[in-house]
Amino acid sequence: MDHGEGLTTPRWHIGQIMVRVLQLAQMPQDEVATGIGVPLHELSRCLTGQQLPSRSMLARFARVCGADPMVLLMVREDQQRRAEV
């Protein structure tokens, strides 16, 4: 049996940074999802690196969590640029 079956490596590392921001904000995911206006499953996909958050979603996420949106947006743009290569 393959123990890695069904597991995939996260594509977008911005999710790891978002998780850390969420931890520092000490806010529940459902509250943040409501605050940024997205379904919880969409936020979850971004946090696990399965989905690249849009620029507007990431900026709203940062504001709701009390983080600097510019830093997160710079990381997002860098990742997107590297993925295109």
Q: Could you characterize what this model shows?
A:
It is globular, with a radius of gyration of 13 Å. It is about 65% helix and about 0% strand. Helix 2 packs across helix 3, helix 2 (about 30-35) crosses helix 4 (about 55-65) and helix 4 (about 55-65) runs antiparallel to helix 5 (about 70-85). The mean pLDDT is about 90. The chain contains 5 helices and no strands. By secondary structure, it is mainly α.
Tags for this model:
single chain, mainly alpha, 85 residues
User: What is the SS-derived class?
Assistant: mainly alpha
Instruction: Indicate the low-confidence ranges by residue numbers.
Output: none
CA(first)-CA(last) distance: 35 Å
Q: Approximately how much helix is present in the residues?
A: 55-70%
Q: Treating each run of at least 4 consecutive H or I residues as one helix, how many helices?
A: 5
Q: Please provide the ordered H/E string of secondary-structure elements.
A: HHHHH
Largest sheet: none
Number of strands: 0
How does the overall form come out from the CA principal axes?
globular
Query: What value does the Rg take, in angstroms?
Result: 13 Å
| Content of β-strand | under 5%
Mean pLDDT: 90
Lay out the secondary structure:
Elements: H1 14-25, H2 29-36, H3 40-47, H4 55-65, H5 69-84
Summary?
The protein has 5 helices and no strands.
